[in-house]
Write a sequence for this structure.
C-alpha cells in the first residue's frame, strides 16, 4: 500500500468515526434534555442546577457542529485535525462548566481568573460555531454587540455604554447566569429542543404524512385543492416544527409537485408553501414553541398567549385561503383527482391516534399545570405508544426511536448555538445599560410619532430575524424591540406579537427570505420572484401588527360587543382586500374594481374608532355594498 493510499484510508476511518461520534453526541444531548424534562435530578434528589445541564448540552452541541460542519462549508467526508481539536475542547468546556459553574457563579470575584480562562476558549468556539451554522450575518451582529460591550463608552449620547474592560467582560459573560448560560439558552434547551424531539418522532411515525392526507381529504376535492392542502398541512405541522424552513422541506416535497401538476405556476406553488409554512409559526396552540417563550417573558399564563394570538392567525390564513381559492377560479385550476383522494372517514380511522399526543400536550399544560418541556415529554411518550399501530408502514421501533433522538440532537445544534449567541448579547445589554439607552431613545421617537416608532421597530425586527429559526427570532426582537413599545403604553401582548410577526416576515422577505428560497428550489422557480409573490400572499402579516396595536380587540381584549365587531370587520376586510389583490371575486376584475376592493377592505381592517369614530368602517361597508350591487347587476344583465 502506497503512503497516499494509507493516508486516505486513515482519513476515511477518522471521518467515519467522527460521523458516529456526532450522532451519539446528539443522542447524549437529547438524553440530558429528557432528564430535565422528566425532572430526573429532582426525583433522585441530586443537587443539580439547570445551568449545569445547559452547560453540558452546549458542550455536546458545539462538538457536533465541529464534527459535522466544515469551516469552508464544503464536503463533510474529510474531518480536519483542527475540527477534532475544537470538538474535544467543546466537550472539555461543557463538562468543566457543568461541574464548576455553581462555584464560579456563587463567588464570581474569587474565581474570576478561572472564568476568564474558560471564556478565552468558549467564546471563540461559539463565534466559529455560529459562523458555520448561521452564516456571516449573525456573526456580524454578535461581533457588533461584543465590540459595543468593550468600547461602547466612547459612543456619545443616550447609547453610551458602561464598560468593564476586556478581562471583566469576558469573565462575566461566561461565569454569570445572565450571560452565556442565561435565559435564552435555558429556554431553548429546556423547551424548544423537546419540541424538536416531538416533531422528529411525529415525522418518523407517519404523523406528518397523516396531516397531509387529512388535509387532502378535507380540501382536495375543492377548486384549488392542492394549494389548500399545502396551506392546511403546513399550518398543522408548522406549528409543531418550530422552523418554517424545515416545514417547507418536509411538506413541500409532497404539496409543491401536486400544485404544479394541477395547474399552479411553479412560482405560485413555492410562494404558497413558503407563506403557509411561515404562518405555522404564528398558529396556536404551539406557535413553533414561541407561545411558551412569550408566556415566560411576559410572566403570564400560557392560555392568555394562545387567546391573544388566535384571531390574528385566523385572519392570516383566511387571506391565504381566499387568494388560493380565487386564483384557482381565475385560472380554472381543477380539484385533485378523486383517484388520488382517500375518503375522509378512512383517513381519520387510520390515523386518529395522532390526535392523542396533542391532547396530552394541551391537557398536561392546562389541566395538570405542567411545564411546556414536561408536557412535550409526555406527548412524545404518548406518541411512542400510539405509533405502535403505525400509519402506512411507519412505526416507531426501538432502532427508529434511537435514530430519531440522534437526528433531533444534531438538528438542535443550530438552535443551541443561536441560544448561546443570544445569551452573550443579553449579557452585553445588561452590563452596558444598552437596553435602557435604546428604550429611552426609541421612546423619545415614539412620543413624537408612534407610527414612526412602529415602522422603525418593524424594519429592525425584519433585519434581526434574517435567517434565524422562530424561537431565536422571537428572543432577539422581544428583548431589544418590544420594551420601547410597552413603555409607550402599547399592550404587552400586542408589542410582543408585533415584533414576532415582523421577525418571522424575514423568512419570506428579500433579500434573505430563506423559507421562500427553499420552496423555490423545490419548485424550480426563481428565488427572488418567489419571495416577492410570497410577500404579496402574506400581506396580512404586514398589516395586522399595526392593526392590533391600535385595536387590542383583535387580541380579545376589551368589551364583548367591540371584540365581535372588530373581528367581523377585520375578517370581511381581509377577505375583500385579498380578492382585490387576487384580481377576481365573482368574475375577473379590472383595475378600477381591484382598487375599490383594496380600499374598501383596508378601510374595514383599520380600527375605525381612531378615524372619524367609526365612519371609516361605514365607508368601507358602503363601498363593498356598492361594488357587490354593481357586480350583481352586471352579471344579471349578462345572463
Amino acid at each position: 500500500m502506497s503512503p497516499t493510499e494509507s493516508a486516505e484510508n486513515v482519513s476515511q476511518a477518522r471521518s467515519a468515526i467522527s460521523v458516529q461520534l456526532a450522532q451519539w453526541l446528539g443522542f447524549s444531548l437529547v438524553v440530558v434534555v429528557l432528564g430535565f424534562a422528566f425532572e430526573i435530578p429532582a426525583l433522585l434528589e441530586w443537587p443539580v442546577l439547570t445551568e449545569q445541564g445547559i452547560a453540558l448540552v452546549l458542550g455536546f452541541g458545539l462538538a457536533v457542529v465541529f464534527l459535522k460542519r466544515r469551516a469552508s462549508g464544503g464536503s463533510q467526508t474529510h474531518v480536519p485535525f483542527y475540527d477534532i481539536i475544537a470538538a474535544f475542547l467543546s466537550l472539555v468546556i461543557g463538562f468543566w462548566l457543568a461541574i464548576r459553574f455553581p462555584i464560579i457563579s456563587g463567588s464570581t470575584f474569587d474565581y474570576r481568573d478561572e472564568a476568564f480562562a474558560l471564556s478565552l476558549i468558549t467564546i471563540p468556539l461559539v463565534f466559529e460555531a455560529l459562523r458555520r451554522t448561521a452564516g456571516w450575518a449573525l456573526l456580524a451582529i454578535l461581533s457588533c454587540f461584543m465590540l459595543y460591550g468593550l468600547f461602547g463608552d466612547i459612543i456619545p449620547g443616550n447609547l453610551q455604554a458602561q464598560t468593564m474592560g476586556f478581562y471583566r467582560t469576558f469573565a462575566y459573560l461566561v461565569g454569570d447566569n445572565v450571560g452565556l448560560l442565561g435565559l435564552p439558552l435555558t429556554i431553548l434547551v429546556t423547551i424548544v429542543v423537546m419540541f424538536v424531539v416531538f416533531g422528529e418522532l411525529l415525522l418518523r411515525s407517519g404523523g406528518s404524512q397523516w396531516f397531509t392526507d387529512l388535509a387532502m381529504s378535507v380540501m382536495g376535492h375543492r377548486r384549488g385543492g392542492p394549494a389548500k392542502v399545502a396551506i392546511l398541512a403546513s399550518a398543522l405541522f408548522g406549528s409543531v416544527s418550530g422552523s418554517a424552513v424545515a416545514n417547507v422541506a418536509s411538506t413541500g416535497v409532497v404539496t409543491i409537485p401536486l400544485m404544479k401538476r394541477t395547474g399552479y405556476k411553479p412560482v405560485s406553488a413555492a410562494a404558497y408553501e413558503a407563506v403557509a409554512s411561515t404562518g405555522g409559526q404564528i398558529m396556536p396552540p404551539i406557535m413553533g414553541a414561541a407561545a411558551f417563550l412569550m408566556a415566560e417573558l411576559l410572566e403570564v399564563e400560557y392560555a392568555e398567549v394562545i387567546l391573544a394570538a388566535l384571531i390574528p392567525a385566523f385572519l392570516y390564513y383566511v387571506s391565504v385561503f381566499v387568494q388560493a381559492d380565487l386564483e384557482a377560479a381565475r385560472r380554472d385550476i381543477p380539484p385533485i383527482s378523486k383517484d388520488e383522494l382517500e375518503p375522509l372517514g378512512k383517513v381519520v380511522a387510520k390515523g386518529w391516534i395522532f390526535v392523542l399526543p396533542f391532547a396530552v400536550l394541551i391537557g398536561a399544560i392546562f389541566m395538570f399545570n405542567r411545564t411546556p418541556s414536561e408536557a412535550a415529554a409526555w406527548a412524545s411518550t404518548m406518541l411512542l405508544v400510539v405509533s405502535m399501530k403505525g400509519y402506512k408502514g411507519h412505526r416507531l421501533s426501538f432502532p427508529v426511536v434511537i435514530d430519531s433522538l440522534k437526528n433531533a440532537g444534531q438538528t438542535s445544534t443550530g438552535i443551541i448555538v443561536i441560544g448561546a449567541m443570544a445569551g452573550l448579547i443579553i449579557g452585553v445589554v445588561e452590563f452596558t445599560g444598552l437596553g435602557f439607552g435604546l428604550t429611552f431613545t426609541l421612546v423619545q421617537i415614539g412620543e413624537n410619532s408612534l407610527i414612526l416608532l412602529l415602522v422603525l421597530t418593524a424594519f429592525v425586527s425584519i433585519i434581526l430575524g434574517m435567517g434565524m429559526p422562530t424561537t431565536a427570532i422571537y428572543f432577539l426582537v422581544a428583548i431589544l424591540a418590544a420594551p420601547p413599545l410597552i413603555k409607550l403604553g402599547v399592550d404587552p401582548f400586542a408589542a410582543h406579537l408585533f415584533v414576532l410577526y415582523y421577525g418571522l416576515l424575514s423568512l419570506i422577505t428579500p433579500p434573505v427570505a430563506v423559507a421562500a428560497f427553499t420552496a423555490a428550489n423545490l419548485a424550480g422557480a426563481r428565488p427572488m420572484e418567489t419571495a416577492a409573490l410570497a410577500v404579496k400572499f402574506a400581506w396580512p402579516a404586514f398589516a395586522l401588527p399595526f392593526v392590533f396595536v391600535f385595536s387590542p380587540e383583535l387580541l380579545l381584549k376589551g368589551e364583548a360587543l367591540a371584540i365581535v365587531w372588530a373581528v367581523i370587520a377585520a375578517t370581511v376586510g381581509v377577505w375583500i382586500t385579498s380578492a382585490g389583490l387576487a384580481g377576481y371575486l365573482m368574475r375577473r376584475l379590472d383595475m378600477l374594481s381591484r382598487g375599490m376592493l383594496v380600499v374598501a377592505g383596508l378601510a374595514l381592517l383599520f380600527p375605525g374608532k381612531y378615524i372619524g369614530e367609526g365612519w371609516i368602517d361605514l365607508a368601507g361597508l358602503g363601498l363593498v355594498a356598492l361594488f357587490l350591487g354593481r357586480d350583481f347587476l352586471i352579471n344579471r344583465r349578462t345572463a
